[in-house]
Write a structure and sequence with these properties.
The protein is mostly helical. The chain has helices at residues 2-23, 35-49, 56-78, 80-101. It is elongated.
Length: 111
C-alpha cells in the first residue's frame, strides 16, 4: 500500500511544485520553471480541451482530492478490522459516560 501512496504522491508533488514555482516565476534560471512556459502550457491545454485555461488548475486540484479520497477509502477498506477494533472501545466508553450523565440521580461534580 505504501508503494501505491508513493506512486500517487510523487507525481502530485512534482506537479504542484512545478505549478507553484512557475506560477510565481521562481525559475532559478530554468526555462521549465518560468511563468512564460507556465502560461504556454495551460494555454495549450486550454486549447486542446476547449476550455478556459484559468480553470484547469482547479480541475486538477479537484481530481487530486478525488484520487486522494479514493486511496484513503481503499486503505480504510484494507484496514477495516484494525479501525473497528480501535473505534469500538471509544464508543463503549462514550456510551458509558452518556449513561452516567443521563442517570436518574446524577452526581454533580461539586458534591
Amino acid at each position: 500500500m505504501r508503494y501505491i501512496f508513493a506512486l500517487w504522491a510523487a507525481p502530485m508533488a512534482l506537479f504542484w511544485g512545478w505549478f507553484y514555482l512557475s506560477l510565481n516565476d521562481m525559475n532559478f534560471g530554468y526555462l521549465m520553471l518560468s511563468r512564460k512556459l507556465h502560461d504556454f502550457v495551460f494555454e495549450l491545454y486550454g486549447q486542446m480541451l476547449g476550455i478556459d485555461p484559468a480553470i484547469i488548475p482547479g480541475m486538477v486540484a479537484k481530481a487530486c482530492v478525488f484520487d486522494g479520497c479514493l486511496l484513503m477509502a481503499l486503505w480504510a477498506f484494507r484496514r477495516r478490522r484494525e479501525i473497528t477494533s480501535w473505534i469500538k472501545p471509544r464508543w463503549a466508553a462514550r456510551s458509558d459516560r452518556m449513561q452516567e450523565a443521563t442517570a436518574a440521580d446524577p452526581k454533580l461534580p461539586a458534591e
